[in-house]
Amino acid sequence: MAKLSQEDLLAQFEELTLIELSEFVKAFEEKFDVTAAAAVAAAPAGPGAPAEVAEEQDEFDVILTGAGEKKIQVIKVVRELTSLGLKEAKDLVDGTPKPVLEKVAKEAADKAAESLKAAGASVEVK
Does position 31 have pLDDT exceeding 70, yes or no? Predict the structure, then answer.
């Protein structure tokens, strides 16, 4: 098979649909054990430049630290927030501190923490 030039490859990719291109990228990643992640440019560190750039957190964990006196209400809220069954939700509440939700958006984490606190639980958002 003749080696294709970069222009030839790009011409071939132009003809693919987005789904076909996505499938190709997945196959390429599996074949060569790589990931197609966007490159992150490092900021040059000059005099007066901060040593580290603080990255804003966009994923939060909601940790149940205590059930409080209204354990049944807390179990109900845990079941509403997750897809856990009654036994699993009870085990989670009994085994505190445990994460209820992991890697969720700030708004969802705040809403879940508010619901759990309203039911009498003590909650931490990390």
Answer: yes
Q: Determine the average pLDDT of the residues in 13-30.
A: 84
Q: What is the pLDDT of residue 24?
A: 85
Quote the Cα angle for 77-120-67, to 5°: 75
CA distance 119 to 122: 9
Work out the angle at residue 73's Cα, subtended by the Cα atoms of residues 122 and 96, and round it to the nearest 5 degrees.
Answer: 40
Task: Return d(Cα 95, Cα 84) in angstroms, integer.
Answer: 15
Rounded to two decimals, the pTM is: 0.53
Give the pLDDT of residue 39: 52
Edge-first strand listing for the sheet containing 60-66: 98-104, 60-66, 122-125
Within 33-105, residue ranges assigned H as helices are 71-81, 86-94
Q: CA 23 to CA 46: how far, in whole Å?
A: 42
- Cα dist. 78→1, 64, 71, 81, 85 in Å? 59, 9, 10, 5, 10
Kindly state the tokens that stand for 47. Answer: 């005099």
